[in-house]
Amino acid sequence: MNICVIGQGYVGLPISIKAASAGHKVYGLDIDLLKIEQLKLGISTSPEVTKDQILILQRSNQINFITELVDDLSIEVFIIAVPTPLNEYGEPELKMLENACLTVAKYVQSNTLIINESTSYIGTLRNFIYPLIENNSSSINLRYAVAPERIDPGNNVWHLENTPRIVSGLDKIAIGQAAKFYSTFCTQVYQVDKPEIAEAAKLIENTFRQVNIALVNELSEVASRFDFSLHDAINAAATKPFGFMPFYPSIGVGGHCIPVDPAYLSYSARQVGVQSRFIDLANATNLSMPAKVVSRIESQLNNELNGMNIQIAGIAYKTGISDIRESPALELIRVLESKGSQITYHDPLVSNWKHLYSEPLKTDIDLGIIVTPHAQIDFSIWKKSGTNVIDLSSSSNNYGWPKFL
Ligand SMILES: NC(=O)c1ccc[n+]([C@@H]2O[C@H](COP(=O)([O-])OP(=O)(O)OC[C@H]3O[C@@H](n4cnc5c(N)ncnc54)[C@H](O)[C@@H]3O)[C@@H](O)[C@H]2O)c1
What one-character DSSP code corresponds to residue 127? Predict the structure, then answer.
C-alpha cells in the first residue's frame, strides 16, 4: 500500500521504516526541513533506526522523505505521529495534531484509512480528528482508526514489531483495515471495540508508571531517615512472585510520555467532571524531586552551593538517547544555578542546551552529579581523581538521601 507517515520523529521514523521494510511504499513527511535533509543522508532521528536501513530503503525507492505532499501520490493510509505536548497551563496542546489533520484533509482521497498514533486525551479520534478532517475535505468514505504508539526508544528487548499493537476505530471496517495493516509488521495486534478504549489504554500505561515512580520517590525520604536503602527494600519486596512490580526512586520523570500522558488522562477526567487527585499528586511529587534533591545536597554541604563548580553527567531524560524533553536534569540545573552554583555538563548525546555546551568530564570541580549514566560516559576519570560525586540515577543504590560516592 501507499502510506504517508506525518511526523518523522521518535515514533514516525521507526513506523515508516517498518512499513517500508514490510513492502509498503512509504512517504515520510515532516515540516522540519533540516530533519528531512538529514534523513535523506541517512542520519537517523531514532535509536531504533540505522543509517543503513534508511539508505537501503531510499535507494530501492521504498521510502521517500518529503516536506510537502503532492496530489497524485494515491495515499491509501495516513498515519499521524506528531507531538502532543502540554501548554503553559499543563493542558493538552493539539496545535500540531490539528495542522497534521489539515494536511490530511487537503490531500486525502476517498476510501482512505487515517490512523492516529499520537498520544492524546480520550475522545480525540471521535471528537477532534474526525470532525476536523470531515469539515475540511470533500472526500468520502474515509475510515478513522487509532493505534497508540508504545515504543520505548533504546529498549533492546521490546520494540515496534514484538510489542502488541492496540488498534481501534470509529467503525468495524476501520478497525479491520487498521488491524490488517499493522499485522504486516507487528507480531500481535489487539483489537478493541471503541477508540476511547485504545486512547485510555495508552494513557493508563504511562500514568501507572508516573504514579508508582512518585510513590517510591516519596518513600525515598522515609528510607533515608530510617537509614536503610530503599533499593534493597524494593528488591526484597520484588522477591514476591505475584502482585508486585518494582519501581526505583529517581530525580523525577522525563521524556514526551510519562510526565505528559498523565496530564492528558487528568484532562480527560476533568472533561467529564471527575477530579483525578491521585494523578495530579503523582505529577506534583515527581516535579518536586529536583528541588528536593538540591535541598538535600545543600544540607549535606552546609548550605555551600553558592559559587560551587558542579558538573552534571548526562542530561538526557534516560540513558542511551539524546531526548531532553521534560528531563529532570534541566530543572536540576535551573535550581542549582538559582542557588549560585556554576554548572557545566557532560553528555555525549546532547551537544548543547540553552547557554550550556557539553564539556568533557572534569576533575577541577567541587562536585560531580550523575543523573543519566549513558554507557558512553567513562566515569573512571572521576573515580581515579577522587572527585566528590553524587549518583542520582535510578540505578544507584545510594539514592534516597544523596550520598557522596
Ligand atoms: N517519544 C516516545 O518515546 C513516544 C512513545 C510513544 C508515543 N509517543 C507519542 O507519539 C507522538 C509523537 O512523538 P515523538 O516523540 O515522535 O515526537 P518527535 O518530536 O520526535 O517527532 C514529531 C515530528 O513531527 C513533526 N511535525 C510536527 N507537526 C507536523 C506537521 N503538521 N506535519 C508534518 N510533521 C510535523 C515534527 O517536526 C517532528 O519531527 C506524541 O503524541 C507522543 O506522545 C512518543
Answer: I
Per the structure block, which three cell numbers stand in for 207? 500514568
3-state secondary structure of 337: helix
Q: What is the pLDDT of residues 34-70, one digit of tens each?
A: 999 999 999 998 889 999 999 999 999 999 999 999 8
With a 6 Å cutoff on the Cβ, whether 149 touches ligand 1 is: yes
Beta-bridge mates of residue 370: 313, 391
Ligand 1: distance of its center to the CA of 293 in Å? Answer: 31
Nearest alpha carbon to residue 149 among 177, 126, 120: 120
105: left (phi over 0), alpha (psi -120 to 50) or beta: alpha
Q: Quick one: cell of 108?
A: 486525502
Inter-residue contact 361 to 307 (CB < 8 Å): no
Residues 6+ apart with CB under 8 A from 227: none
Which atom of ligand 1 is the closest one to the Cα of 12? Answer: 16
Judging by DSSP bridges, how do beta strands 143-146 and 367-370 pair with one another?
unpaired
Three-state secondary-structure class, residue 370: strand
d(CA 310, CA 365): 6
Residue 57: name the closest of 32, 34, 39, 74 by CA. Answer: 39
Residue carrying the nine cell digits 515540516: 31
Decide if 101 is catalytic. Answer: no
What's the predicted TM-score (pTM) here? 0.92
- Interval 182-241: pLDDT, tens: 999 999 999 999 999 999 999 999 999 999 999 999 998 898 889 888 989 999 999 999
**CB-based contacts of 41, cutoff 8 Å, min separation 6:** none
